[in-house]
Every structure is written in structure tokens, then in C-alpha cells.
Amino acid sequence: MSNNKKILISGASIAGPTLAFWLTRYGFDVTIIERSKSLRLGGQNLDIRGAGRAIVRLMGIEQEILDANTGEIGLQFVDSDNKVKAAFPSDGPGSFTSEAEILRGDLVNILYNSTKDRAKYVFGIFVTAINQTGDEVEVTFNDGKTETFDLLIAADGVRSTTRQLIFGDEPQLKFTGLYNAWYTIPKIDTDTQWARWYTAPGSRVILIRPDNHGTMRASFSFLSEDKGYQKLPNSEQKKILKEKLSGAGGEAERLRAEVEKNDDVYFDAISQVHAQKWFSGRTGMIGDAAYCPTPLTGMGTTLAIVGAYLLAGELSRHANHEDAFVAYEKRMRPFVEDVQKLPPGVPWLAHPKSKFGVSVVNTVAGILASGLVKKIGKLFSSKNEDVTKDKIELPDFKKT
Ligand SMILES: Cc1cc2nc3c(=O)[nH]c(=O)nc-3n(C[C@H](O)[C@H](O)[C@H](O)COP(=O)(O)OP(=O)(O)OC[C@H]3O[C@@H](n4cnc5c(N)ncnc54)[C@H](O)[C@@H]3O)c2cc1C
Reduced to 3 states, what is the DSSP secondary structure of residue 134? Predict the structure, then answer.
């Protein structure tokens, strides 16, 4: 086992707690810090696919995840009057709604509960400075305190500031041309167990999905140049969202009214992270911080879970952290590069500009739904190609 026993993880969402789960199982002393004052439980559905599913099975939480299923029965394409133009029931690996469809917040809670007794969680804290010596890494926090650790791993998402402290500007954020906001809205009489996809002119899409908490999860996406909206304060972001929703038709007015009331709107410029290096000395990064593939791939959560499992495993079987990092990267990088390839036309195809474009989307969806092809995801994203993409070896680290 590694000599580097005291590990700090920054970020308590998916990648961080999964890493903590495995590290504590191998006998490491783990602290997780989270910038927010409590767990951030917002967001829509996340898929856990292929190798990610195999790992949650090993963690003993697969059944809990399946039990927390959102109850979504499939995807409908609707027009501005909410009339169904095409329907894709959830019926197997090719469908938009997967079997292990869980709300992000439910998954974060499950991971937190399965680690909170073995790892130390500290909320409302983030790293402001890092000083590496050969033997340790000294970390300064926003409260002015300092502490030394053997290793520091950033798992704090696509906009990681810890990554910036470690690597500066080297990691590239590649904007896909799409902005997306997610937030929770009250359920109303016309909501069903179907997810409803409404394509609006002006390159806008509204997706409303049922959840298992008696509410609905709204997603609003639109094409745009990079305008830096992601850097604005929450109140400014809400203004932009209301402007963009204006005149979109369908349920846009409902979403406009609700955005104001919501205190955890997650709004981002959908971007991939490409980094030449994932490690530097005694520091490194995993999950979206290191290799965000974007929700357009449907694989961000799977990558976060797989990366955490492999990194913990390699640290458990190498005495030297640098050897562990090299072994981990050799396994993980080809998988990441494969997942990050977006098919041509994503995300533009699903966000037409004109009314004519909208009618083409609905007509094509209708033809596909008529029985020829049920794998609707192929048209709009790469999310259903994971069957071929999930080819990564998962060693049994306990045996080696
Ligand atoms: C609030 C929220 C809502 C989301 N909603 C969706 C969604 O609806 N659909 C979807 O596909 N993906 C969504 N995502 C992204 C999704 O969770 C990730 O793509 C994926 O699961 C990989 O997880 P991760 O743990 O690497 O990163 P993330 O899930 O992004 O988690 C990063 C964590 O680090 C924390 N953090 C950030 N900066 C710091 C810091 N400096 N120090 C300490 N902690 C920090 C964040 O608060 C967060 O808890 C959402 C993420 C968040 C944070």
C-alpha cells in the first residue's frame, strides 16, 4: 500500500465521495472538503452506465440506486401545445431513459451516507493556496487555517478552482456552444411520468422530467457563443434565463416564473475539460475537474465513478504515489478520450434555429418512433453508445 496515507479530497459530489469510499476501505485517512455549506443536491437525472454500474455493485449500493429510480417511463417529443409528436418508451439499453436513472441529489446522498462514518467531511471550506514540498503538501483554506497532507485530489467539478491552483491555465475548457440550466419546479396536473422534450425556435430546448420526490426537474438549454454567463452571479444568471425563455412557447412561461423562486439553479456553459496532465507532484484531479465529457455524452457520472475506483485501487497497490498516478492514467486516459468524442451535429442538430427546423426535428422523431429506430439518443447525443464505449478493465484491487 502507498506510504501516502493522509489524503485531502476537494469536492463532495460524485467523484469525491466515491474516491473516499475506496480509499477508506484500503485504510487511508481521508478528509473531504466541500465549498457549499451543505451537500449540493440540485440537478436532473444522472445515468450510471456499464463500468460505473459494475462499480456501484461492488460498493453494495446498486440496489439503493435502483430503488431511488425517478419513475420516468420514457421520452415524448411535444409541440408548443404539449401535443405528443413522438414517444420513446424506456425499453432497454438504447432508450433515452436508462434503468439506473437517479436524481443527482439522491446519488450524492447515497454516496455521502456510505462514507460519512469513515471519512471526515468539512463543509463551507475551500483551498486557497498549495505549497508542495517533496514529502507533503501544505494546504491553506479560506478560513486562513493551514494543514499538511500526503496527497491532495481535486474532485470539485468542471469549474474547479483547485485545478487552477495546481495547474494554472493549462487545462483547456472546450465550450460546446450550448448553455444549460437545471432546476426543480413544482408538479402540476398536466405532468406525467413521461419526460417531455419541447424544441423551440431560436435554438432552444425545454426538457421536463418527473422525479420521485413529488416535483419535476426542468432543463433549459440554448445555443450561444461563449458570453461568460457562467461567471455571473446567480441573480444575473436568472435574468439571462428569463430573457432566453421569453417567447419560446410551450411551457417556457412556467419555467420563467419558477426560475425566480429557485435557490439552486445550476447554469453552465457546457464545456469539456482537456488536460495534458492530471497530476503534479502530490496533487491531482479526477471527475469533471479533470476530464468533464459534458452531459451531452451521458457519461460524466460513469467517468467520475470509474476514475475514483481506479485511482484508489492504484494508490492501494503502489508504495509510491507517482507510480500509482502513472498506472492510473495509463488505464483511464484512453477511456476518457473515447467518451469525449462528440458525434458530428451534437448539440446543433437538436437545437434548430427556425420554425422549419423545429418541424424537421419533430417529424424525424415521429418517423423514428414509428418503430424503425428506437434509439433516439443517437440522433441528439452520444449517450446511448456506452455499450461499445464502456470497454475498460476494472481490476479487482483486493486480489493484487
Ligand atoms: C448543483 C449541480 C447540479 C448538477 N446537475 C446536473 C444535471 O442535472 N445533469 C447532469 O448531467 N450533470 C449535472 N451536474 C454535473 C454532474 O454532477 C457531474 O457532471 C458528474 O456527476 C461528475 O461529478 P463530479 O463529482 O466530478 O463533479 P460535480 O458533480 O460538478 O461536483 C463538484 C463538487 O465540488 C464542489 N466544489 C466546487 N468548487 C469547490 C471548491 N473550490 N472546493 C470544494 N468544493 C468545491 C461543488 O459544490 C460540488 O459539490 C451538476 C453538478 C452540480 C454541482
Answer: coil
